[in-house]
Amino acid sequence: MLIRRALPGDGPGIASLIVAAAPHFEVKGYPDGYWPEGIVVLVAVEAGVVVGWIEGVVDGAYTGPGSPAPPPHGYVLALVVEAAWRRQGIGTRLLEAFVSVARGAGARWVFLLPEEGEYVEGRVAFFDAAGFTPVAHPGKTWPAMGRWT
Q1: Distance CA 134, CA 124 (A)
Q2: Taking a C-beta distance cutoff of 8 angstroms, is the pair 67, 109 a contact?
Q3: Which residues of the chain have pLDDT under 50?
Q4: Is residue 69 classed as helix, strand or coil in its secondary structure?
Q5: How many domains does the chain have?
Q6: pLDDT, position 138
Q7: CB-based contacts of 69: which residues, under 8 Å, 6+ apart?
Q8: Could you give the angle at the alpha carbon of 51 between the alpha carbons of 47 and 54, nearest 5°?
Q9: CB-based contact 135:67 (threshold 8 Å)
Q10: Which residue segment(s) compose the domain that 85 sits in?
Q11: For residue 95, with 0-12 CB atoms within 10 Å meaning exposed, 13-18 middle and 19 or more buried, which class applies?
Q12: Spacing of C-alpha 75 from chain mean position
């Protein structure tokens, strides 16, 4: 399993993964091999096939209460692993790789917003196991989660 920065040729595979595993996400320019400037895109590739994908920014700013460090912050926008490849550590490896990229860009803290809805408890448990802890945010059932780089 190879975890690396996405290349334009990975775009169609990322788009297919989004459509199959997370159809509520926008495929953006992925089918054509491009994505917005400033977005960090990493992929997990097995035998030339994209089986996992993470995107985020490394120069973001968490504006809610409870941020333990000043910006820039890393911000995980999306993380998807193909269903057949889940529970094999791929999502955790993608998160670790993103945190490493954020650290290299000068971010001391990375945050994400767990997607609400069905199975949110499982997503929160996964992020907790990957070192992300809830950020204090009174009145929010599912607050942001963050971790040091």
Answers
A1: 9
A2: yes
A3: none
A4: coil
A5: 1
A6: 63
A7: 108, 109, 148
A8: 130
A9: yes
A10: 2-148
A11: buried
A12: 8
Q: Amino acid letter at 117?
A: G
Who contacts 90 (Cβ-Cβ below 8 Å, separation ≥6)?
1, 44, 51, 52, 81
The pair of structure tokens assigned to 13 is 């595979």
Burial label for 6, CB within 10 Å (0-12, 13-18, 19+), is buried
Residue 24 pLDDT: 83
Q: Where are the alpha helices (DSSP H) in the chain?
A: 11-21, 90-104, 120-129
Beta bridge partners of 112: 76, 145
Amino acid at 1: M
The model carries a pTM of 0.93
Give dist(CA 145, CA 16) in Å, integer.
Answer: 28
Whether residue 72 is preceded by a cis peptide bond, meaning omega within 30 degrees of 0, is yes
Task: Say if residue 134 is exposed, middle or buried (CB neighbours under 10 Å; 0-12, 13-18, 19+).
Answer: middle
Q: What is the CATH number of the domain that holds 24?
A: 3.40.630.30
